[in-house]
Amino acid sequence: MTGTLVLAGTPIGDIADAPPRLVRELETADVIAAEDTRRLRRLTQALGVTPGGRVLSYFEGNESARTPELVEELAGGARVLLVTDAGMPSVSDPGYRLVAAAVERDIRVTAVPGPSAVLTALALSGLPVDRFCFEGFLPRKAGERLSRLREVEGERRTLVYFEAPHRLDDTLAAMAEVFGAERRAAVCRELTKTYEEVRRGPLAELASWAAEGVRGEITVVVEGAPESGPEELDAAELVRRVRVREEAGERRKEAIAAVAVAAGLPKRVVFDAVVAAKRADQ
Fold it and tell me: What φ, ψ does residue 139 adopt, rounded to 5°?
C-alpha cells in the first residue's frame, strides 16, 4: 500500500493557534519535510513535541530535486508530513510540486487545516468577502508589477496580495495608479502577533502612510472594481485607455481585450473605437 502525504497548517503568529492534530502528526509521521528545519525545531519545542520521524529540508531551492525522493517514500508506504514556516503549504509556499506528483501517482493527499493569512486578512479587512481572488506576491520590477495589476484592473472580486514590507509603499502607489486613488483597501500587518495592526483606507492614503516605513509580515486586501457600464465611457476614453496600455508594452490585441473587460463591453466595441480613431488620425 502507498503512504499518505499530509499538508499541515502551522501558526502564522500565535503558537496557541496550532491545531491539536498537528501535534499528533509531528509525533507519528515517518518523514517530516520542513521549509526551514530551524523553524520546525522552534515549533516543536514550543509545542513540547518530539518528532517521531526523519526530518529533512524542503524549500524553494531544493523543491524540484527533493520531490522525487519524497514521492518514492510515499510510494513505499511512508506517511510524509509537509510543513512550511507559517500557514498552509502550497499557498505561496513550497508544496504544489509534491502534491501534483503525489496525485499523479495516485497517492493519498490530506491536510491538517490551520491558520491562513489570506482568510484572516479577508475577515479583518472590512471589505466584501463573498467572492475573492488571491494573487500572491507581485513582481519586484516596477514595469512587471504594473502589467500584473492591469491584468486585474476590472476584477470585481476582492483581491488579496502578500508583500514584503520594504516594497509595500511602491506596491500601494502602483495600485493607486492602476485601480484608482480612492479604491478602498486594508493593510494587515503581523497578523495574530503582538503588534498586529490593520490599517484601512483609500489606496493613495495607505501609500502615503507606508512611505514612512512599515515592518513585519504584510497582507494587502483591495476592494474589487466597481460596477461599470458602456454609458460611462465614450469612444475617445476607450481609445485613450488602449493607448496607455500599449505604451506600457502590451500588444494592441491584449490591450483591447483588457479595456473591454474593465469597461464591461464586448471586445468588438473597443476594437471599432480604436480602428475609427486610427482612420481619423490618418
Answer: -60, 155
- 97: exposed, middle or buried (C-beta count within 10 Å: 0-12, 13-18, 19+)? middle
Cell of 164: 514584503
Task: Report the predicted TM-score, pTM, of the whole model to 2 decimal places.
Answer: 0.77
Write out the three cell numbers for 228.
461599470
Q: What share of the chain is helix, strand, coil (3-state, %, to 5)?
A: 45, 20, 35
Residues in a beta bridge with 31: 54, 80
H helix runs in the chain, sequence order: 20-28, 37-47, 63-75, 96-104, 117-125, 142-151, 168-179, 203-210, 235-247, 252-263, 267-281
Letter for the amino acid at 28?
Answer: T
Q: What is the DSSP letter of 232?
A: G
pLDDT digits (tens, 9 = 90+) for 48-78: 999 989 999 999 999 999 999 999 999 999 9
